[in-house]
Design brief:
Length: about 375
């Protein structure tokens, strides 16, 4: 018997488990994979993510990881540079395989149990039991679904939800010491392609709004990767992600959803780690209140309302960046107003110190563009 079973060993689940363990509750994590495992992700930590991670994972040493702080950012369209920026708040590029494994090791160090490689586990919700692949049964008081975009637990919560963006990524060696994050908006429907240099490798990928029946998609993707110097596309990894589409009520009975399982991803940039860690933390606090004072678990929704509010705002304003009819106008505005982009990169994306709404309202010309996009 444990207090909390967590399905999924990514940052969302591990963060929830770490906080609960520190408060004296017995938890275990169940994951289908064996760590370290590969994870499709651009692997960028913003300042807000780093601060939250350092708050939860006391004395976690980033210096022991394969990571690199990047201050240079370029925005492009059709391979042409729209703007070059040097940010004050560095974007930290990490190896997600190593990063996730280090967080899981930290969780174990505070007493957490981990059952890896559980391909055939079964959750018996009406009995509050998880049956592992070898038949071992684990009883729980609360269950957290942190099992990613293809969450099994989400089907129990019973909310209608669909992933909206298809992503592909491949890593190549960083032989020339590249030090600039490059984002290109051309050739992509409702998304962008990226080239993000880490310490020893470069992540090359793309994320596009998914529409069934787009037969020319593979040809376009091949051209995008070839333009980045990748001719062999056989080993490119792919996955669906959420992009502004979240589960409105991620709680049912004694089951909560966190991170990607709840669809919590920044609807402007696609950043997921911050909301994953934040939702895991808030889930743990809601569970502690439930255990200590019998406060209903449904209060978890109130705790993550700030995430939902931010995502609703982002979903409104991402139109100006990803809807084709407005995109070229927006990008031209970016080209002519580098100080606006610089401020967004430092104060909105990296830190959330400035809401996108307020940042846009400060720039009167761009407010007009956004108003047109929002009315369409």
């Amino acid at each position: 018997m444990v207090d909390v079973v967590i399905i999924g060993g990514g940052p969302a689940g591990v963060s929830a488990g770490t906080v609960l363990q520190r408060k004296g509750y017995k938890t275990c994590i169940i994951d289908t994979q064996i760590f370290p495992r590969e994870k499709l992700c651009a692997g960028v930590l913003t300042v807000k993510s780093i601060k939250l991670i350092q708050y939860i994972y006391k004395n976690l040493n980033f210096g022991d990881m394969d990571m690199r702080d990047i201050h240079k950012v370029e925005l492009l369209y059709n391979g042409k540079i729209i703007g070059k920026y040097t940010v004050d708040n560095a974007y930290r590029v990490i190896n997600r395989t190593e990063f996730d494994n280090e967080l899981l090791k930290y969780y174990k160090s505070v007493g957490g149990m981990v059952f890896e490689g559980q391909k055939d586990y079964e959750i018996v919700y009406d009995k509050n039991v998880v049956v592992l692949s070898d038949g071992k049964k684990i009883s729980y008081r609360v269950l957290i679904g942190a099992d990613g975009i293809n969450s099994k637990v989400r089907s129990y919560v019973g909310r209608s939800w669909k992933a909206s963006v298809l992503c592909f990524e491949k890593f190549i060696p960083n032989l020339s010491g590249e030090d600039t994050i490059k984002i290109d908006f051309s050739g992509i429907l409702g998304g962008y392609s990226w080239r993000i240099p880490g310490k020893d490798r470069i992540g090359v990928g793309l994320g596009e709004f998914y529409i069934r029946g787009m037969k020319k998609r593979p040809v376009r993707y091949k051209k995008i990767f070839e333009s980045q110097g990748i001719s062999d596309i056989n080993n490119i990894k792919g996955a669906f992600v959420s992009f502004g589409n979240f589960v409105r009520e991620p709680v049912k009975n004694n089951v909560l959803l966190v991170g990607d399982a709840a669809g919590l991803v920044d609807a402007m940039t696609g950043e997921g780690i911050y909301f994953a860690v934040e939702s895991g933390w808030q889930a743990s606090l809601a569970i502690i209140d439930y255990f200590k004072r019998n406060v209903p678990l449904i209060t978890y929704i109130r705790r993550i309302e700030k995430i939902h509010k931010k995502m609703r705002e982002q979903r409104v304003y991402n139109k100006f960046l990803y809807v084709p009819i407005f995109q070229w106008i927006s990008l031209e505005h970016f080209r002519k107003n580098p100080e606006f982009v610089q401020s967004v990169l430092d104060d909105s994306i990296s830190t959330y110190h400035m809401r996108y709404t307020k940042e846009i309202r400060r720039n009167k010309k761009f407010q007009v563009i956004c108003d047109e996009a929002c009315r369409s």
